[in-house]
Specification:
Layout (H helix, E strand, L loop, with lengths): L4 E10 L13 H16 L7 E5 L9 H8 L7 E2 L8 H14 L5 E9 H10 L24 H5 L5 H15 L4 H20 L12 H5 L7 E3 L2 E2 L9 E10 H7 L6 E10 L14 H14 L8 E3 L5 H11 L25 H15 L4 E8 L4 E9 L13 E2 L15 E12 L5 E9 L5 E6 L3 H10 L6 E7 L4 E6 L8
Parallel strand pairs: 2-3, 2-4, 8-12, 9-10, 15-17
Antiparallel strand pairs: 1-7, 1-8, 4-7, 5-6, 8-11, 10-11, 13-14, 13-16, 14-15, 16-17
Helix pairs in contact: 1-2, 7-11, 10-11
């Protein structure tokens, strides 16, 4: 079997504000259309489009973004539409759907594009400026069709966003690997520093200052602690104005366009899921779903991880990269790049569309000839959805590569039953500490294992500052304490054994 779908065109835009030119916010639909035109021109297929998919923007919703982009492109014929629920994995889910349709002979040329403009949206709000963008339909919602990020139990205790979820994984990884807190932070910072060096050479990157591992790890006024153990520079930066687009074509169209030497073959891909809610996962120190997607994608491609020249491992937070390194079997000292762009903390994290930038950069690198194969991973929601895509330079596909149609795979994931109300003894499975803008701890969030094998979520009982100090003094994962349910707030309160009493 050989590849049936090929990425023939790619484009990226990064509207970083200039010190010398006035800032002007551009709406997502316009930015997506610009990237789309560039990608179609790059593919030499501007008049051959027969399918379209657009990644939803957080900053500005549309009733029919794909339709607006198609109109901007001057498309007069009906285009087949592809759509998937939102998430950082959505560009690859769209790509895999497109590849399947091409393999079935249903389409020959598809555009996948997306943009995020949270920088302009947030700046306009701060400066009380009207950007003049069209009104958003009241029915439009970028999260339509998607399950909630966290459960009601998790929400009541403050687990609302990725900035709370991924630190829980980081602390669980540290405990499972028996590393000290300093060792884990240094490891995470060194991985990100490697990405930052890549971003320094990426003309599309939002931040090109390449901070050292020490700078990334050190807490300062410019690099405050967000949620332990993550400083600001360990977080994906969504406050960007960026767009990207790719064009995927069939083999027959590639031959017609004589584009063999410019295309990236889609050798294989797969998607999988973990248990949806963080508190219900059997393990917080690994991702069975990510492993399943990675292994299936490599199997579909007919390659081993050792045959991959470069990776772009989804890098919203260090724990996501560490999960992916584990899934691919990449050691900490592996010389291969972990990101082609510089990652979401430095190249930029344009909402759901980041992977389009990774794929576009992969196409550029494969064309240049400095790599022959690449693997790109994606993550959605609270590290619940996973995708992996394997690419190769079309005129240098490794011997034995297969190019099977991408698919979704089931995982042998065991969910843990959660308890809304809990009292008595419990053991820490993981935890994180939220910090306010002044650098003071404002909430402790626990995932707790109960003696009967079930699990719950809790906050600290008593002084947050004193509890945070105790948690940071020694490894708390695996330690026991006492739970008490607070009926007035519907929350569970946990006191670590040996902690100061709530009234002290």
């Amino acid at each position: 079997m050989k590849p049936t779908a090929f990425i023939a065109g790619a484009a990226q835009l990064s509207l970083r504000p200039s010190k010398t030119e006035p800032w002007k916010g551009e709406e997502p639909a316009s930015l997506v259309a610009r990237a789309a035109k560039l990608a179609l021109a790059d593919a030499g297929a501007s008049s051959r489009l027969d399918a379209i998919a657009c990644v939803e923007s957080f900053a500005w919703s549309y009733g029919d973004l794909a339709g607006q982009v198609a109109d901007s492109l001057g498309c007069t014929q009906p285009l087949r539409r592809f759509s998937v629920p939102t998430g950082g994995n959505s560009p690859q889910d769209l790509l895999h759907q497109v590849c399947s349709a091409i393999a079935a002979g249903e389409i020959h040329c598809a555009l996948i594009a997306g943009a995020e403009v949270l920088y302009s949206r947030n700046r306009a709000r701060r400066e009380n400026r009207d950007l003049g963008w069209p009104a958003r339909p009241t029915t439009a919602n970028p999260f339509r069709g998607q399950k909630p990020f966290s459960s009601e139990l998790e929400q009541r205790h403050g687990l609302l966003l990725p900035i709370q979820a991924f630190p829980l994984f980081e602390n669980a990884i540290r405990a499972a690997q028996r590393r000290s807190a300093d060792e884990q932070i240094r490891l995470a910072a060194s991985i990100l520093a490697k990405n930052a060096r890549v971003a320094a050479d990426n003309p599309h990157a939002w931040f090109r200052d390449a901070p050292s591992a020490e700078d990334i790890a050190a807490v300062s006024s410019e690099n405050r602690m967000i949620a332990y153990p993550y400083t600001k520079r360990m977080n994906a930066i969504m406050n960007v104005d960026q767009a990207a687009a790719i064009v995927v074509i069939s083999e027959s169209l590639m031959r017609e366009l004589s584009a063999d030497d410019r295309c990236a073959s889609v050798l294989g891909g797969a998607g999988a899921e973990d248990a949806w809610f963080v508190s219900e996962r059997n393990t917080l120190a690994a991702s069975p779903g990510m492993k399943a997607a990675t292994h299936a994608a490599l199997d579909n491609a007919g390659l081993s991880a050792s045959q991959i020249d470069a990776f772009d491992l989804y890098s919203c937070f260090p724990s996501a990269i560490e999960f992916a390194m584990d899934a691919f079997g990449v050691a900490q000292d592996d010389p291969r790049p972990l990101s082609l762009t510089g990652g979401l903390a430095f190249a930029g994290g344009p909402g759901n569309a980041y992977v389009l930038h990774a794929l576009a950069t992969a196409v550029s690198r494969l064309r240049s000839g400095d790599i022959t194969t690449a693997a790109v991973s994606g993550v959605g929601m609270a590290c619940a959805k996973h995708t992996t895509t394997v690419l190769a330079r079309t005129d240098a596909v490794p011997a034995g590569a297969t190019g099977r149609t991408p698919l979704r795979v089931d995982t042998d994931v065991r969910d843990v039953e959660t308890v809304e109300r809990a009292d008595g003894v419990a053991e820490i499975a993981s935890y994180t500490i939220d910090y306010d803008r002044s650098g003071a701890p404002e909430r402790v969030l626990y995932i707790l294992d109960l003696p009967d094998g079930r699990r719950t979520v809790a906050n600290s009982d008593g002084s947050v500052g004193a509890t945070a100090e105790q948690l940071l003094a020694s490894e708390p994962v695996g330690r026991r304490g006492t739970l008490a349910h607070d009926a007035s707030t519907g929350t569970n309160r946990f006191t670590l054994d040996g902690a100061p009493s709530p009234t002290s």
